Target: ATPase
Amino acid sequence: MSIQAPLVGRQAEQAILQKALLSNEPELVAVIGRRRVGKTFLVRSVYAGKISFEITGVQNGTTREQLQHFTDRLNYYAQPLLPFQAPKNWQAAFQMLIIFLENRINGKKTVVFLDEFPWLAGRNSDFLKAFGLFWNSWASQNNVVIVICGSAASWMIANVVRNKGGLHNRITRRINLQPFNLYETEQFLQSRSIQLDRYHILQIYMAMGGIPHYLKEVEAGKTAMQNIDQICFSPQGFLREEFTELYPALFEHADNHILVVRALATTWQGMTRKDILAKTGLPDGGSSTRILEELANSGFITTFYAFGKKKKELRYRLTDEYSLFYLQFIEDKRGEGAGTWERLAQTQAWKSWSGYAYESICLKHIPAIKKALGISGVYTEASAFYLKKSDFGRGIQVDLLIDRNDQAINLFEIKFYQSPFVLTKEQAEEIRLKKAIFKSATASPKQLFVTLLTTFSLVPNEHSLSVVDSTLDMNCLFVSFD
Model:
């Protein structure tokens, strides 16, 4: 019997699952999240010893193969003297499950875990209809927790959460499992006896994000550069070919999703829907809208509004760290062998990418930044600001601003450096001009504060004291969001 590793983080998600177990009502819990984010591990950890039946769908399996697999799993749990025979359809399969479960419910709540739910449903099967009947006619009247889980987030939302048939409004609790933030990543690595300082953890996060299954590849005793080189560039590296499997495992006709991802990887400013269609050649219609929604629901891209243009300038940005890193570096360097990342980390391409990657991570850690600024209790809206031309004869770009309900706005300057940051006279003038242009262009009556967010600390001097109102460093990102 294998030993289960400890569950790190996921406090809010654990609480949801525990409440479902302790409630006096039947529960239908949907757990949604991208591939390798830790959905199965979460459910198994919280419900250890309480799962009466568990099955994982067969990827690309036929209805016949799924039914046989279902029967095999049922026989494994029931261990009957006369084994169940594979049924002809899903309605009969769930009737078999009912017979099994009725012998297991003895006043205690029992858990049924249906993993990779979209794979079980497959195409042209009666699975969803039969599952809806199973819930409505039996499970909803018994002391059970039914957990359904799927990596195809968009499928789960469209076919389960927004189901118009027998499952309409039947979900009692929903978990949208996200990758680890930096705080959880640090905890996860420490739980595996990996002692790295925060700059090394940040570098690893910039390359592969907070996907637990990716982070499991990090080895103790190696630097961030050595780990990235091994995991991403060596012939046996786990992430060397992951990109080619990632999207097809989640989406039908994944080539179009990849087209969008590749297009967004070419710009740091994000793109409007119109820009994306022009770049990819995709049609202007419902299919393109669905692709963008699916990528957003699965956490690969993020939507944001330009400041002051909420109804017009909705922009899309590639925020999946691994996808960006793969397209920038791994794809064209897979044949260069050991030491590839050490060489690439000396290039201008690395400098450009690292600045964008750090900025993107900061955007994902707004709650931590607000906590560091002491404004956690203030309602805020985070956005960006772009101006192509102004009365000053030039445009500006503010990649992050926090618009506060207490009549203030924080304009951020985000700098990724490998040492403490020293603001030069030229940089101070640039910040001063940017602030003036923003004030003039927006006519905002709010107080403007310039916040410098660096990797390491700021070295104060006459230039920084004249333009910077507050400073933060990467340590502010390594705090719990709770």
The first helix runs from residue 11 to 22. The two ends are 35 Å apart (CA to CA).
